[in-house]
Automatic annotation (TrEMBL):
InterPro entries given in the database record: Kinase-like_dom_sf, Nucleotide-diphossugar_trans
Name recorded for this polypeptide: Capsular polysaccharide biosynthesis protein
Length: 522
């Protein structure tokens, strides 16, 4: 059996950035860590996940664990490691005879080492107190070198003996390990792919090795830099020019540009920043509302500073190009590809019945039409393109658009589009959909949609605060915010044809937003 020990909460340094969660619930590559850990099992072994007994699950996470046949074992979060292991062992009913694989909740490998009676070891350059394993001895605490560090995985062919030694050693894990080693000769096995998420420094170092990529971008990430390249040369050049051209005052909100666009390699280089993207903070953390609200305010501080730098061109309302015209073009492609009648009425959650054309007609009237000075615009200010530095209390942004509505390289645009993209995440809940936190039942034949996004109720308070701030600061009504969201979701549908379920969810979300739009304040 595989026993994942995540029965206490993360240390204070990690808790300050992610809230009070067990280590297996930390975010990694837009998933919780336990999803990666569970994938190491299922070779015929039962999987058990030990968690604090007072931890409250998100519904989505709980259902995922059940679907993947993970048995949950609640323990007192104040127990020592040894006490938690013994408690978990006693709570497990039928135990198979295949031994015990023990994985710490803050640990991940690409593959679990094969074999019985093993201790996984690796090396570390970090200045923490580690336990070290040698064939002749095991030392609980040492700083003498960075090799032979015990790295959170053990296998025991005689688990009952190990549990008994834990009890007789007064639940001292290291002492019990020594006694087991004396009787059954544990072998050390070196692993080069150890990912340690137990400390703030090791967490971010480990994340460097585990990054997500978009299909049209190529990322080369090291501990110091990110090289971004693409076959779409104009797009990458525009991004690089944005970083080069923005005023110095704005550069505290961006990574340092290390190398500008290279026409031969079709790439540019940024410094790598050891912080977390907002999509992971908002979807996966348990931070209090005041912290999340302050993060949103930092986003608006960035927009406000961008607004101070004007272009003289005010000849055209850019939003009509960025919203309505683009939406019509993209929706036309979507309905053609899927053979959908834009005038067909869809029944959404048995609450509303409306067609795509109805939605477009109603919402277009509330896209802001007032001419604005063109100011510096990021162009894709969604959560996945923003990180937050908890030490400075300031966001930093990447992946700017760098192109105007005509496809020309420019740092200028309509600041309201940045507000719309930010709203796309906090109101539109795009990042929750991408993370799979939804339930959908869409039937094309009967034009019916059942759809729900699984979110924490506390998010409604943050959304309400955000809407109020936007109304007060920028005179953009709640109805306009939701109108822009709906256009954004409809216009992105053809871009998600690689995943039909996700595409259906984004389509359904436009109807969810329309239902809110109908009741929103003008």
């Amino acid at each position: 059996m595989l026993l994942i020990m995540s029965g206490s909460y993360v240390q204070q340094e990690l808790g300050a950035e992610f809230g009070s969660i067990p280590p297996s619930f930390l975010p990694l590559a837009n998933k919780r860590l336990f999803k990666h850990q569970v994938s190491l099992g299922h070779d015929g072994h039962a999987i058990y996940l030990v968690l604090p007994e007072d931890f409250v699950f998100d519904k989505h996470d709980y259902e995922w664990l059940l679907r993947n046949k993970v048995t949950l074992i609640p323990v007192d979060s104040n127990l020592t490691l040894g006490q938690a292991i013994v408690t978990a062992w006693n709570l497990i009913g039928d135990k198979d005879d295949k031994g015990l694989q023990l994985l710490f909740g803050d640990t991940l490998f690409k593959k679990i080492p094969a074999g019985d009676d093993l201790v996984a070891i690796s090396h570390s350059d970090d200045n923490y107190q580690w336990s070290f394993f040698y064939e002749t001895e095991l030392r609980a605490v040492s700083r003498e070198n960075n090799k032979n560090v015990i790295c959170g995985y053990f296998s025991f062919s005689k688990p009952n003996f190990f549990i008994r030694e834990l009890v007789t050693s007064k639940f001292d894990f290291t002492a019990a390990l020594k006694k087991y080693h004396d009787s059954y000769s544990l072998a050390s096995i070196y692993v080069s792919d150890w990912l340690d998420f137990g400390h703030i420094n090791t967490y971010y170092k480990s994340k460097v090795q585990y990054t997500t990529q978009r299909a049209f971008n190529e990322l080369c990430i090291t501990t110091k830099s990110v090289i971004k390249s693409s076959s779409n040369e104009s797009k990458i050049e525009a991004e690089s020019k944005w970083f080069e051209t923005i005023p110095g005052e704005l550069k505290i909100y961006t990574p340092m540009l290390l190398e500008p666009f290279d026409h031969i390699r079709k790439s540019y280089k940024l410094e790598y920043l050891y912080n977390t993207t907002l999509n992971e903070l908002f979807v996966f953390s348990r931070l209090p509302n005041n912290i999340l609200t302050n993060i949103l305010i930092s986003c608006l501080d960035f927009i406000d500073l961008c607004k101070e730098y004007h272009s003289i061109d005010t000849d055209k309302n850019i939003l009509q190009d960025l919203f309505y015209e683009k939406t019509i073009e993209r929706v036309s492609k979507y309905i053609t590809d899927l053979n959908i009648d834009p005038n067909a009425k869809w029944n959404f959650n048995n609450n509303i019945s409306v067609s795509i054309n109805d939605i477009l007609y109603d919402t277009n009237k509330f896209i802001p039409s007032e001419l604005q000075y063109k100011t510096i615009m990021h162009g894709d200010l969604c959560f996945s393109n923003i990180i937050f530095n908890f030490r400075t209390g300031r966001i930093q942004v990447f992946d700017p658009r760098g192109l105007n509505h005509s496809g020309e390289i420019s740092i200028y645009g309509d600041f309201r589009y940045d507000i719309a993209k930010l709203s796309h995440s906090i109101l539109g809940l795009y990042d929750w959909i991408i993370a799979g936190y939804y339930i959908i039942n869409l039937k094309n034949k009967t034009h019916s949609i059942e759809f729900k996004i699984n979110i924490d109720n506390k998010l409604f308070e943050i959304q309400s605060t955000f809407v109020s701030i936007i109304k007060e600061k920028y005179s953009i009504s709640e109805k306009s915010l939701y109108a822009m969201q709906i256009h954004l979701f409809l216009s992105m549908l053809p871009l998600h044809s690689d995943d039909k379920k996700r595409q259906d969810a984004l389509f359904a979300n436009a109807f969810r937003l329309y239902e809110i739009f109908k009741e929103a304040a003008v």
